[in-house]
Design a protein that fits this description.
single chain, Glutaredoxin, 4 domains, 4-stranded mixed beta sheet, 5-stranded mixed beta sheet, Rossmann fold, Ubiquitin-like (UB roll), alpha/beta, 40% helix
């Protein structure tokens, strides 16, 4: 029976001429800011004799706008930082290809240095074409899942030791198991694609570049817990992500990958999209569920947990885009293959959003256990300037700042330093060499105070108080007693707050006091 689902899926395989030259223009929210859409329009009007595809960004944002020529043997010629003046040259190359050029340029090198699971083919395939995704092995994991008992699907994911990639790193298999065993007439799978954290832009790259992989992971999860409804919660400002996700879902319905009796099975599942204003606090899953139901964006008291009583008081599985994008790989290749990647107790990869004072900002998927220094130097090309000694903000406003002499620390789930600094959702912001770290910490503290929903007293009253104390931290007040008081306040806010925002609000302060004692 398992083979029947795979055969039906492969019958949808792209029948387009494999000998044809494909021209891909990477258009994402990032590349649009430097004219990628204009380059696409100019190529469309230049009468090129090739299949022109609007793909997503491959994560090498610093090379945008980018045009890729993919030949029948899957080799490529890549044109980086394309301007209007380059369009005629590229058009001539397309219409009269004499030889492949620059096949081993910087883009190829940086992609080859990554381990891509979630971002595989991102930027090199048509995000609006389900058949293209299938031709590259897409939805095979789903076909295998449909031919497997639901409990066995959960066991495979559990055996992989996959942890959530939203910041809390909770075991994905345990979540699935909890929803699966809860008896209810209705169950939901909710995908948190809100991504409201400053310095993080990985999920938008996935939505813009490989939306079908997220959908596949969502359907496998829904099948495993026997949920008939999938809901994507997406930030209303992410318009390109929304458009491509909508197109991908529509195609899934046409191919019976969504809908009644998917791929000829006995399982049926529907998918909807909810747009929201979002906010940083929506990273907390019960806050997200509240906004979906039209209530204030504030966390709920737990227990009960969403796995027991979530959306509309029904058992609900909440996961983010990156987590779900790992599931097709696990079902296709097996848990053992997944555990060959990464390191002990931190299997797989992590997508890093790298920005700030770095030569090559972008999105890079690296193995767990990679050092921060490696990420910045190998992928980011190092900090800007001669022999820079950059501090790095890691994990967003709810984490902390590391000085340059601590960048040997490896990216891992949970806390990576005794001060409470966490990898979080994977945002790395490289600060300028001479950045006033105290001022930067003040900015993080102000952000947390502004984003606090106000439900719990420690966060509502404590975060503005932290800002006030930081504002008064001057040479005349910078005494051991004052620093101790500030440290105690940060500890109280972190220990007593209801959700992750407040629980992490003290970490930037603790990291500052630890690493910059003078």
């Amino acid at each position: 029976m398992k083979d029947n689902y795979t055969k039906r899926l492969l019958s949808f395989n792209n029948t387009e001429d494999v000998k044809a030259l494909k021209v891909m223009v990477q258009v994402g929210q990032c590349s649009n800011s430097v004219g990628a859409q204009n380059i696409l329009s100019l190529l469309k009007s230049s009468n090129i004799s090739a299949d022109l595809i609007e793909s997503g960004c491959d994560g090498l944002c610093f090379l945008a706008p980018k045009v890729i020529l993919q030949y029948s043997d899957k080799t490529t010629s890549i044109f980086n930082n394309v301007s209007e003046n380059d369009v005629e040259m590229i058009s001539n190359e397309i219409n009269s290809p004499k030889k492949k050029r620059n096949t081993n340029n910087l883009a190829t090198e940086l992609l080859n240095n990554q381990t891509r699971i979630a971002m595989a083919q991102c930027g090199y395939s048509d995000p609006s074409n389900a058949k293209s995704y299938i031709s590259e092995g897409g939805y095979i994991g789903l076909a295998k899942a449909l031919g497997t008992k639901q409990d066995e699907v959960i066991s495979e994911i559990e055996d992989s030791k996959l942890l959530g990639r939203g910041g809390a790193y909770f075991p994905t298999g345990l979540k699935l198991k909890a929803v699966r065993k809860t008896e209810s007439k209705s169950k939901y799978v909710v995908i948190n694609a809100e991504e409201g954290e400053p310095g993080v832009f990985k999920d938008r790259h996935l939505l813009e570049g490989v939306p079908h992989r997220i959908i596949e992971g969502a359907i496998i999860s829904a099948y495993a817990v026997n949920a008939p409804q999938i809901i994507f919660y997406i930030n209303a400002k992410a318009k390109l992500s929304l458009d491509r996700l909508k197109n991908a879902i529509e195609q899934c319905y046409k191919l019976n990958i969504l809908g009644q009796n998917i791929l000829g099975s006995k399982y049926s599942v529907e998918a909807d999209i909810i747009q929201g204003a979002g906010g940083y606090v929506c990273g907390e899953e019960t806050t997200l569920l509240n906004t979906m139901e039209g209530d204030r964006r504030e966390p709920r008291i737990k227990p009960p947990f969403p796995t027991e009583s979530g959306y509309k008081s029904s058992p609900t599985l909440v996961n983010n885009c990156e987590t779900l994008s790992n599931i097709p790989f696990i079902l296709t290749n097996g848990a053992t293959s997944f555990k060959r990647i990464g390191c002990e107790n931190a299997y797989g990869t992590k997508i890093i959003s790298l920005s700030g004072d770095v030569n090559r900002p972008g999105v890079f998927e690296v193995q767990m256990g990679t050092s921060i220094d490696e990420i910045i130097k190998i992928f980011g090309g190092g900090g800007i300037g001669k022999n820079p000694e950059n501090a790095v903000s890691i994990g967003g406003p709810s984490s902390g700042v590391l000085p340059h002499n601590q960048l040997h620390i490896k990216i891992m789930p949970g806390r990576i330093h005794e001060t409470g600094i966490m990898l979080g959702a994977g945002g790395l912001v490289v600060l300028k060499d001479k950045t006033n770290v105290l001022q930067f910490i003040k900015n993080l503290a102000k952000y947390n105070a502004d984003e606090s929903c106000g439900k719990c007293t420690p966060c509502r009253e404590g975060t503005p108080r932290i800002v006030n104390m930081l504002e008064k931290l001057k040479p005349s007040t910078d005494t051991p007693a004052y620093r101790e008081e500030l440290s105690d306040l940060a500890e109280v806010v972190s220990s007593a707050s209801l959700c992750g925002l407040g629980q992490g609000a003290g970490t930037p302060i603790k990291s500052f006091l630890h690493f910059w004692p003078d």
